[in-house]
Amino acid sequence: MQEIKIFSPLDNSLLGSIKSMSKEEVDKEVGKAKEAFYSWKEMPLSQRADIMYKAADLLVANTKKLADLLMMEVGKDQKSATSEVTRTADFIRFTADTAKSIHGESIQGDTFSGFSKEKIAMVTREPVGVVLAISPFNYPINLAASKIAPALVSGNTVVFKPATTGSLCGIELAKLFMEAGLPEGALTVVTGKGSEIGDYIVTHQDINFINFTGSTEVGLDISGKVHMVPLLMELGGKDAAIVLKDADLEFAAKNIVAGAFSYSGQRCTAVKRILVLEDVADKLIHYLKIEIEKLKVGNPLNVQADVVPLISEKAADFVWELIEDAKQKGAKLVIGGTREGTLLYPTLFDEVTEDMRIAWEEPFGPVLPILRVKTVDEAVKLANKSEYGLQSSVFTENLTDAFHVAGKLEVGTVHINNKTERGPDHFPFLGVKKSGIGTQGIRYSIEAMTRVKATVINLNR
Ligand code: NAP
Ligand code: G3H
Is the beta carbon of 238 within 6 A of some atom in ligand 2? Predict the structure, then answer.
């Protein structure tokens, strides 16, 4: 059996190892999920929901253990790691509540001309079958459970492929779901590198639905290989914070800095560029600098840090390339631009222009470019020029302007006077363009992973 060793990004210590599964081992796990589907979907919803409540309780009971592992495995600070666990428990409970509140409907035929009311459709929702849940490294508990719980509670079984970095957390999460009372096969875990087992699993004939969160690169690759299998995908982003002339600049700066640099910007929803009206740019930068100087930078093993070492040397090198490119092409470094190994200091660039990579690429690291604009229309145009369309923020004191801009932005969510962020988790969450396919959010996730079934009765016989 081949193994993959998992090392901590914080101190390079060996945390454990996972199986690098062969095709036969993957088949076995998918087979178990397929077999379990028929009995799991017949279990009354109230009982499936009870298992979810139990799983949430177990998560809470294991908060410290999971948060410690999260910190070591994906380098999160203790506070964020703890909140990821508690947020996930809330998510699972809300999922069970929501599943119980989704009802079908009946439709009488005579609402359509030429048909009688004796023809009635009963519209219900059915699970889709075996859901393949693939999660990214940055929220190994939350972005796994936010696929697993809505899929399970609706009667699907799940094959879960955690990100390799994050898989120890993923395996612990799956154990807690099992301990909560899931029958054998309702949730199985496949491990191994996506680059090795990914193609095999996404094209597996017994997978009925793929719920993927990760990079646009891998998402595009999967969507090009899969045929007639529905996809739910949350991918990369380049979220813009648009700051209008009348914005409360101090407030905007606080929001933007928190949004851009927490967990070193390793969040899909991190603020990844600022588009500011040039009349107020200097003043905004003044406040941004003050806020950035307040950030705690360091290793979560030693300090409760906002800016932490990046997940890998490769990730840090990539962000560094973007910084170098911006410097070379004449961007003005406001603060940061230094590095100690994988720890990059929070970096702010002014006077970024469209020829610079940082204007368009997702760094997934602590670097934030400012593009000055002359008009609101120019800000909207630049925002929409991105290949991504996850979220945007608009900062202004004028709600009419805010709605005007929001209406023009090609993104899944617009935040008015707020940083970009996913939560609360029952809000719809989606990306357009290369940021995703379909909609997550608790009710939306359940709806996505169930299909409508109409049973039509003819009383007129
Ligand atoms: P990633 O490299 O795309 O990996 C995501 C998942 O896909 C991992 O489980 C990975 O497994 C797997 N994978 C890799 N190659 C695969 C293949 N050929 N077929 C099937 N699966 C494959 O992303 P990441 O670095 O973990 O996460 C960062 C990215 O995710 C960023 O772009 C970020 O914006 C995005 N993200 C988006 C959201 C959102 O909701 N929109 C949320 C979080 C993150 P291995 O780990 O084994 O390679
Ligand atoms: O990385 C993507 C996560 O879905 C972001 O969630 O906005 O709550 O940090 P968050």
Answer: no
